[in-house]
Design a protein that fits this description.
By secondary structure, the chain is of the alpha/beta class. It folds into 2 domains: about 1-190 and about 370-380, Rossmann fold (3-Layer(aba) Sandwich), CATH 3.40.50; about 190-365, Rossmann fold (3-Layer(aba) Sandwich). Helices cover about 35% and strands about 15% of the residues. It has helices at about 1-10, 15-35, 55-60, 95-105, 165-170, 195-205, 240-245, 260-265, 280-285, 300, 315-320, 330, 340-350, 355-365; strands spanning about 35-45, 70-75, 90, 105-110, 125-130, 155-160, 180, 215, 225, 230, 250-255, 270-275, 290-295, 310. Strand 11, helix 8 and strand 12 (about 270-275) form a beta-alpha-beta unit. The chain is globular, with a radius of gyration of 22 Å.
Length: about 375
């Protein structure tokens, strides 16, 4: 019922305007009577869906430091009972308590949105957004879409990994460039130094043979190819063919958006491991020798490791037309794009890892200018 209501509001301009105007008015009246508390901090991640990403890294860094011990920290979730968190009080998103805490908090920390499509931020509230990746697909006011795009320009601090990020985000979200912190994404800090012992331990946890190299295949979904039940299209891959061609040297880790995961129904065996529900993406990045994706910003994050990156963009022209992109990945990515399985498989079988390292390093220098210490930047804010 909740998701149906959200879809109705998001996809109907008239209903959205009523929702926005009525509740924006109510919460702006409420904030007259609710005093800001400089010791209150409100976190969420992906709109309350997860305990994950850069907000999690910032939170866990903060609770390890003495000066934050006196702060009252809240984490907002759609389903709080699903998460076990030490050091913060869990609250349910979109409840009266959620909005009261939001009005009371001196600091908002998120990778998406706190205001839920409304506009009630207090002038004294410091709105900190880490976002959740490098912008490759059109977003914000740049999206051509029938659905409503809520665009906030009230951010006080917006984390960025590169000047490219700043240029795109500033225009897409109407953010003044002086509000950007070019420090990297906190979630990527741990990719700076990865040791062999850690890789061995993660492989043991996943029961991956030490003599096999790992390919992480992480396709994203197509929001324009779906019905009321979810995605209706899946990547054209023949896993039996991949197994025949690669299984003597490689293991495939399959990591996809849950809608693609559902439609493909990948079953784990001695060649492929369905890691779509594995709760630590960085661990999968750390142990992977090769990344295959399509249009996901995971390619930018993975480039920190200076390992081979391939884009299986079988529907490139259609994706550009339907979704839109900021860069021509056929020219910008280390290996351009591949439109057939045969091209991908041939490149993997004849891979030169030293050459690939050089290609990825060049790409990373352009799009990941800063990384490794981003979590610590919070001390300059709070």
């Amino acid at each position: 019922m909740r998701n149906k209501m959200k879809n109705i509001i998001k996809n109907n301009v008239i209903i959205y305007e009523i929702y926005k105007n009525v509740f924006t008015f109510i919460f702006n009246v409420m904030k007259i009577f609710i005093k800001i508390d400089e010791k209150v901090i409100l976190f969420n991640s992906y709109g309350g869906k997860k305990y994950d990403d850069s907000p999690k890294v910032i939170f866990e860094y903060m609770i390890s430091i003495e000066k934050y011990k006196t702060h009252k920290i809240y984490w907002a979730f759609e389903n709080p009972e699903e998460f076990n968190i030490v050091g913060a009080e869990k609250i349910k998103s979109d409840t009266l308590k959620y909005f009261i805490i939001a009005l009371k908090a001196q600091y908002w920390i998120t990778n998406s949105s706190i205001e839920r499509g409304l506009k009630f931020k207090n002038k004294k509230t410091v709105y900190i957004n880490t976002w959740h990746g490098t912008p490759i697909k059109k977003m914000g006011k740049d999206i051509i879409s029938n659905s409503i795009q809520y665009i906030s320009s009230d951010y006080d601090i917006f984390y960025a990994q590169s000047t490219y990020d700043i240029e795109v985000f500033s225009k897409a979200f109407n953010i003044n460039k002086n509000k950007f912190a070019l420090v990297g994404l906190p979630r990527n800090d741990e990719l700076k130094n990865v040791d062999e012992k850690e890789i061995i331990n993660i492989k043991l946890k996943l029961n991956i043979p030490s003599d096999k190299k790992i390919i992480l295949y992480a396709p994203t979904f197509r929001e324009y190819e779906r019905d009321s039940n979810g995605c209706v299209i899946a990547p054209p891959i023949n896993l039996d063919k991949w197994k025949q061609e690669l299984s003597n040297k490689y293991i495939i880790l399959f990591r996809a958006h849950y809608e693609i995961n559902t439609i493909l129904n990948i079953k784990s065996d001695n060649f492929i491991i369905n890691a779509s529900n594995y709760n630590n993406l960085n661990e999968l990045l750390k142990i992977s020798d090769i990344l295959i994706s399509d249009y996901s910003s995971i390619m930018f994050d993975y480039s920190i490791l200076n390992r081979p990156i391939f884009s299986y963009a079988y529907d490139y022209e259609k994706y550009i037309q339907k979704r839109g992109m900021y860069i021509d990945i056929s020219k910008e990515l280390p290996n351009g794009i591949y439109k057939t399985e045969e091209e991908i498989l041939d490149s993997i079988k004849n891979i030169d890892f030293n050459l690939q390292k050089e290609k990825t390093m060049k790409f990373s220098l352009k799009y990941i200018e800063k990384f490794g210490e981003a979590r610590k930047y919070i001390e300059n804010i709070i």
